[in-house]
Specification:
It contains twelve helices and 15 strands. It is α/β, with parallel strands linked by helices. The chain has two domains: 131 residues, Aspartate Aminotransferase, domain 1 (Alpha-Beta Complex); 241 residues, 3-Layer(aba) Sandwich (Aspartate Aminotransferase, domain 2). The chain is globular and about 60 Å long. The structure holds pyridoxal-5'-phosphate. The site of pyridoxal-5'-phosphate has 13 residues, from helix 4.
């Protein structure tokens, strides 16, 4: 027996552990100081009442012989796939219900999708990046090349035709940088993918934060994307399902190569290794798309969006360069006075008792940058920005 030795090549994920460790040490040494946390990427507001009602009703259905449900369809119940299809229609994108696969979240699908691709593929990921894209490919022993995201390109790298890639990851609005591509910029990526015969894995987990016109809600707003892109999305950020777990992946029928259909391969993969998302959870997710549910989740999103605007305004007042803040719950700022990411972390913690996430933890281009998030309460966010202004103003 041998273990998969590729695991030896995965970088130790010490980012959040180190943040927690430094914060705990500071807190122990300064028990009278109130620490404000703007580092978390998790939602904090409860599920919408419409979702809770649907969950309760579904639980009751499970208690009655006539409405009890056993195994469900591998790809998700029709009522939820129709709801997702109509949601896409609301921003002008047509996808078929049979191109939508419901899952327990975008993270699982982003990792599991690699089952349908050959090990020999070269992977292109942006740097800095959501670590899941890198680690899942390192586990499988694939070659990874990086697209540099930096201040010069506003953390939105564009295709470089000198670089060959087979699988391209794009996350927009981006975690950690909050930067979001326009439809026009994605057209360039689709053109590149089609020319290289590559597939784009498009992570739209934060699409619900987009408020400005011209920015893409879905890669399928670009003509030709259906023959080169798979889209991943989630109920986690739009509706606070991080602990409830539901997401979906869109695989168009047009995505084919050598007589093989990506949609059919994924169905086969899911049918073999996955037995679907609980009926109760899918009922809760479907309630997100009711008029009542939509109004309620928009009110929650508005809280996070206001927090993001408060942090962005603080950076504007201090003259600090940043991306995100609009169309995203993340603010990615350039550490002031030439400080490194961890240096700024310690500076902010010891002088303002504010915790964020050092950009260096997301890739080499993250050094010198820092991520703040809009998921804390309105009070915490306001107090944190006041403190930041006091020490940097
Ligand atoms: N994609 C990105 C970019 C994320 O930041 C996250 C979670 O933070 C996910 C996917 C995971 O989403 P889910 O909760 O649906 O697994």
């Amino acid at each position: 027996m041998n273990y998969n030795s590729n695991f030896k090549n995965i970088a130790e994920s010490y980012l959040f552990a180190e943040v927690a460790d430094r914060t705990a040490k500071y807190s122990a040494a300064n028990p009278d100081k109130k620490i404000l946390r703007l580092g978390i990427g998790d939602v904090t507001l409860p599920l919408a009442p419409a979702v809770i009602k649907a969950l309760h009703e579904a639980v009751d259905e499970m208690a009655v012989k006539e409405t009890f449900k056993g195994y469900g369809p591998y790809e998700g119940y029709g009522f939820l796939r129709d709801g997702i299809k109509d949601y896409y229609k609301s921003f002008g994108v047509e996808v078929g219900a049979d191109e939508i696969f419901v899952s327990d979240g975008a993270k699982s699908d982003l990792g599991n999708i690699l089952d349908i691709f050959a090990r020999e593929n070269t992977i292109l990921v942006p740097d800095p990046v959501y670590p899941v894209y890198v680690d899942t490919n390192v586990m499988a022993g694939r070659k990874i090349v990086y697209a540099n995201a930096n201040e010069a390109n506003g953390f939105l790298p564009m295709p470089d035709y000198k670089v060959d890639a087979d699988v391209i990851y794009i996350c927009s609005p981006n975690n950690p940088t909050g930067a979001a591509y326009t439809v026009g910029q994605l057209e360039e990526w689709v053109k590149y993918a089609l020319e290289k015969g590559a597939v784009i894995l498009y992570d739209a987990a934060y699409e619900s934060f987009i408020t400005e016109g011209g920015l893409a809600r879905s890669i399928y707003q670009v003509e030709g994307a259906k023959s080169c892109a798979i889209e991943f999305c989630s109920f986690s950020k739009i509706a606070g399902f991080t602990g409830t777990r539901c997401g979906y992946t869109v695989i168009p029928h047009a995505l084919k190569k050598d007589g093989m259909s990506a949609n059919k391969l994924w169905f086969r993969r899911q049918a073999t290794k996955f037995n679907g998302v609980p009926y109760i959870i899918q009922k809760g997710a479907a309630a997100v798309f009711t008029p009542e549910g939509m109004a309620q989740i928009k009110a929650n999103l508005a809280v996070y969006q206001r927090n993001a605007a408060v942090i962005a305004k603080c950076m504007d007042e201090l003259g600090i360069w940043y991306t995100g803040g609009k169309n995203s719950p993340y603010i990615w700022l350039k550490c002031p006075n030439g400080m490194g990411s961890w240096e700024f972390f310690d500076f902010l913690l010891s002088n303002a008792q504010v915790v964020g996430t050092p950009g260096a933890g997301f890739g080499k281009n993250g050094e010198g940058f820092f991520r703040l998030t809009a998921f804390a309460s309105e009070e915490t966010t306001k107090e944190a920005t006041e403190r930041i202004k006091k020490i940097l103003g």
